[in-house]
Amino acid sequence: MISSKDNPRFGIFYWLDPMEDVIGWKELKDSSISLAPAFSTGWIIEEHETYWVVAADLIVLKGEITDTGRRQSIYKSSYTKFKEIKFNIYDPQMETTKTCQCGKKLK
Question: Does 29 map to a domain?
Answer without folding.
Answer: no
